[in-house]
């Protein structure tokens, strides 16, 4: 795969999601109707079912559709013009370290809660996502955003819609940030993807054990690893460098000071 094309391919699920959203807005699928099956949508758009699944998840997280296991995907509302204004808001840039700081504070606590609340289906979805990423790494396939999917599924395992919406909001800032787009080619090499996969496997193992503190610590450490990697790759003299933010959230023996 051409490295120069990777960032564009990373956005395939967003493009498919936007097409489906437009079709719903245009009346092709009224409220209460069921969308075509994943396989049919994948064939229609010429993409993998994984890309379609991520696009549908994006629409579910914004409240446009409802994914019902063993039943299908149903339209819940018609997107409005205000959705476009919201998208413009998310395109405003936020520093990568500021986003990481928010994620570290929130997602570690969410993971701890998920260790108590996760269902068998949640655990299975997380496991399947990691297997999917393992295969993608082996195939040198960068078209799937399994990292994002894992973290959204982890937030969803809390069974708290507000927590999931909050994490989704941060990721939407992440996806639209020009700074992240610049760093992505360096940040998502095979070596780093293997490292994040190992971190995610440790988080999942803690959830399986119902280990609340283990889930908190492994998620905190994962995002600490991401932060340290980002520090190595960033130019500390750049005017938009915001790595200093992490100095304000020290950790000692697994506790906030």
Please characterize this protein's 3D structure.
By secondary structure, this protein is mainly alpha-helical. The protein has twelve helices and four strands; from the N terminus they run ααααββααααααααββ. The strands form two sheets. Strands 1-2 form a two-stranded antiparallel ribbon. The N terminus is likely disordered.
Low-confidence stretches: 1-10, 88-92
Number of strands: 4
Radius of gyration: 18 Å
What kind of sheet is the major sheet? 2 strands, antiparallel
Question: What string, H for helix and E for strand, traces the elements in order?
Answer: HHHHEEHHHHHHHHEE
The helix content, as a percent range, equals: 55-70%
- What best-fitting shape do the alpha-carbon axes yield? globular
Output mean pLDDT. 81
Structural class: mainly alpha
**What proportion strand?**
under 5%
Describe the strand arrangement of the main beta sheet, using strand numbers. 1-2
Number of discrete helical segments: 12
- Distance between the ends: 45 Å
């Amino acid at each position: 795969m051409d490295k120069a094309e990777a960032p564009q391919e990373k956005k395939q699920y967003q493009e498919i999601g936007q097409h489906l959203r437009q079709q719903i807005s245009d009346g092709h699928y009224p409220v209460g109707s069921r969308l075509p099956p994943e396989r049919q949508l994948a064939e229609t758009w010429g993409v993998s079912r994984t890309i379609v699944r991520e696009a549908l998840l994006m629409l579910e997280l914004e409240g446009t559709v409802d994914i019902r296991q063993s039943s299908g995907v149903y339209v819940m509302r018609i997107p409005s013009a205000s959705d476009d204004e919201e998208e413009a808001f998310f395109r405003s840039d936020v520093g990568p370290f500021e986003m990481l700081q928010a994620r570290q504070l929130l997602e570690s606590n969410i993971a701890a809660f998920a260790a108590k609340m996760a269902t068998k289906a949640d655990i299975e979805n997380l496991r399947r996502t990691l297997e999917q990423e393992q295969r993608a790494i082996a195939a040198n396939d960068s078209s799937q955003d399994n990292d994002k999917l894992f973290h959204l599924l982890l937030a969803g395992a809390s069974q708290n819609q507000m927590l999931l919406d909050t994490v989704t909001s941060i990721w939407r800032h992440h996806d639209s940030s020009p700074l992240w787009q610049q760093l992505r080619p360096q940040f998502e090499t095979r070596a780093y993807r293997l490292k994040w996969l190992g971190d995610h496997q440790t988080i999942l193992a803690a959830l399986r054990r119902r280990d609340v503190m283990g889930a908190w610590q492994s998620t905190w450490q994962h995002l600490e690893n991401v932060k340290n990697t980002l520090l190595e790759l960033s130019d500390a003299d750049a005017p938009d460098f915001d790595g200093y933010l992490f100095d304000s959230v020290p950790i000692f023996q697994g506790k906030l000071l």
